[in-house]
Amino acid sequence: MTLTTSAPSEVKKSSKNKYIAALVAGFLVCATFLHGRATLFLDPSTNTSFHSWLNSISDWITFHRTSNPFLQIVVEGIRSFINGLVTFTQNLISQGSGNRSTPIIGWLGVVAIVVFVTFVISNKKIALLAAAGMTSLGLLGYWTESMQTLALTLGAVVLSLLIGIPVGVLAGIFPRFEKLLMPLLDFSQIMPTFVYLSPVTLFFLIGPASATIVTLIYAIPPVLRITSIALREVSTASVEAGISMGSTKWQMLRKIQVPLAKRTIVVGINQTIMAALSMVTIAALINAPGLGQVVLSSLQQLDVGRSFVAGLGIVILAIVLDRSTTAAAAKVEEKEPTEQSKRIRRITVGISAAITAAAVAISHSVTWAATFPGTGVIGQHLSNGVSSASAWLQDHFSNVTNAMTNIVSYLFINPLQWLLAETPWYIVGFAWIALAAIIGGRRVAVISAICIAGIIGTGLWSDTMVTLASTFVAAFITVILGIVMGVWIGRNKRADSIIRPILDAGQVLPAFVYLVPFLGLFNASRFTAILAAVVYAAPAAIKLAADGIRGVPAGMIEAGIAAGSTPWQMIIKVQLPAARRGIALATNQGLIYVLAMIVVGGLVGGGGLGYLVVDGFSQETYFGKGLAAGLAIVLLGVMLDRISQAVAKKNPLQQG
Amino acid sequence: MTSASPMISVKNLWKVFGSNPDQVIGTELASLTRSELRAKTGNTVAVRDVSFDVAPGEVFVVMGLSGSGKSTLVRCMTRLIEPTAGELHFGNEDVLSVDAKRLRELRRTKFSMVFQHFGLLPHRKVIDNIAYSLEINGVEKDARHARANEVIELVGLQGYGHAYPDQLSGGMQQRVGLARALAVDPEIMFLDEPFSALDPLIRRDMQAEVIRLHHELGKTMVFITHDLAEAVKLGDRIAIMRDGAIVQIGTPEDLVMNPANEYVANFVKEHPKSHVLTIRSIMRTPGTGEELSEIALAPQTTVKDAARSVVGSTRPLRVVENGQVIGIVGHDEILRAIAGTED
Ligand SMILES: Nc1ncnc2c1ncn2[C@@H]1O[C@H](COP(=O)(O)OP(=O)(O)OP(=O)(O)O)[C@@H](O)[C@H]1O
Ligand SMILES: [Mg+2]
Q: Is A265 within a domain?
């Protein structure tokens, strides 16, 4: 990224700030005097004609499912294919089939296979971790649910890789094809996971097929994108050497580009697996079986203990999957070992394969190896413990937690909501478009105007503003946290080496589990949703901010030190301004992540659009409304993304 | 060298980088300098109207400062880059008009390339790097490994066949590069600054290696360098490039003794002339009844190489070509040559 900075843009910037100040002042004046008018408030139980129209589409599809050729052949074809696949994986590890009451492979067999595979693709240590992790799933009492999640995840991962890798390879070697895909990939990245759900169920009904498809939508982009990047990043020296020796395109691909890109592609596979796991748990909202179901139902019943234990199960699955594929990526780099160590390895792999096969066979027919023994007492105890701990905390610290909730609510959320949701729509809309124009120019302003018109069209303007208020508060906290932590770990290598792995781990956890601890502390409220969103978005924001700080050229820092700056002056006057771009990027990503999580917070009293989406799944009359809420979320996301990206682009400061 | 029909023939070759390269050649824009053209149209002339022939078995060196277009020229000759205009023949074959399939064939059998940064494939062992061309040409594993082992021996890498490139030093890696280029037994080798990334001592070894290989195998070579000493050491003829154009082609002695212009003169002025001056150009006819040494020298011997024998002898030495004495050199000639040229 080459950026230029020049004196005129500085001049422009200060006049820009003046415009923004004037805009804010004008907005506040209008908001005060026109308060409560033209807010486009829609009663929760009311459907607009647009919502009813969406409902009628849904009805039409239901009605014509067996008569319309497209629905019958394409949609039902895909649905039954995926259902078949899911049923197969479920029969394999999580449910009985035919006249069997237990899955084809019992728990012992599954544990053995997982350990064997992790051993082969990574190493002994990770295999042990996998063994411990898998067994603990059973001990927690959620073996079957874990296997349901795993089966769904694996099915989706297999399909994702079958689609994502070849398409990624094509995108990697044909730049034009890549250009065509880019907007789609970008879009899928800013789209909150929540909103895929209803449109997919519209066609594929509620159930495993829809769960798998939404997971595909979410999980294909990472591996696709990374595969194409990996191919393009193969050094030109290697490519040129290959051409100069007379390789055909196919030979180049097979013998040079793919082998050299392999390691990075495995990183992409890792991301796809983590994305799939995350989405499979969220797909509980559309009736995907598994741990997500448990978390969801206990969240809705405010059963903190149970949601904690099931959430822990998800975390354990995530760790096992992440560690083993990360280690596998590292292993790809290893050069072929000596003949002797190869032989030893062949023997150990052979023996472990035999043991695994035996374990699978036993688990197929012997009861103790088929069904995980015990009743999950450990999980029960843990659940009770957490519930009482949460109750105790809420009892004894309710003044603290209530105070926090109240301070944030009265100081930030309510005033913002007052401003955004209770000011006439034309004032808020105009302010947005004007802001977009000042920051991003005409293009961004036009996009914002379209988004605003669209949001009004969904009939959910007021709910959107409620969501926006929470999003702002969470994003604000996230960015502050991002900057503070980013400065800290950006300046301190030791801190970085400790914090970064935690952040990395945080990023692979499915969004759902973030709700659990805050629910335990703060009960169901907007504040809970905001905290979960902050924790969910913080890792990305902190890392980007830290990278921005670290990217400040050494020469600049030396000049600062040479001029006799104190550390504080260094941060304020040199590093932060120079890292402005990184911080702007952190803000952009923070907003996108926060929005995704704020809507999930609809489950725990977050209100706004998220609540409507959830409601749409459970009540048929509000299906259309939920769909419209999803659309509003997308429009809001696009608008926030464009404007905040414009900030990042308009901050012309060098990086790295 | 020009008598036999040439192995490589380059005629009026151009390479213009930029959005609209065709607008340059054959118009008045072509006469602009590189920087003027870039300022005016945004195009860069990397190779400008280059013509030369290379005889079979000749080592043809292309020399010039960084950015003078050497790499672009050699990439055009291997069609890693498509030239904008011009002709290129290897023997009778019009290389620029062959289709993709024939071009691959040529690359697999007729010519090969050695890169400045080696261009080895990091995921393949040394032996499989070397056997790559044979592999993609469908040669069976045993046969190609046998051939690879032959060239491994030839470049002195015995015992390293099963190492990976990043386990070798730079000099050894470039030996792999050389071996890989030799594996297909090509007629022509293109070497683009093959030793620039190596330190001086290793570089000298590798130069000796190339001289030895050339001696043993007699390949036609196009060798790119920006180091005059290297050019003089290896080149039968040297072409000097500046801003994409060739400013002079000649033997090392031609360039040093008769630089075509200030630019070439500047280039060669640091070079000791006794290293390139041959005794052919300083010999005299023997006086009548003059007593001569028994020692005979070839006329292309450089003054530097001749000096020791001449000084070690009390009588002048004979210069012999095709069994005929064509002149003699004595102390005076050598001294005058060294004195006259060392300023
Ligand atoms: N792909 C390209 N696109 C545009 N300009 C290029 C490209 N490749 C080379 N050039 C330009 O062509 C000119 C010649 O470059 P070239 O690499 O051939 O020089 P060189 O003599 O090999 O230099 P060096 O000794 O540094 O390797 C340079 O001005 C360079 O900037
Ligand atoms: Mg070059």
A: no
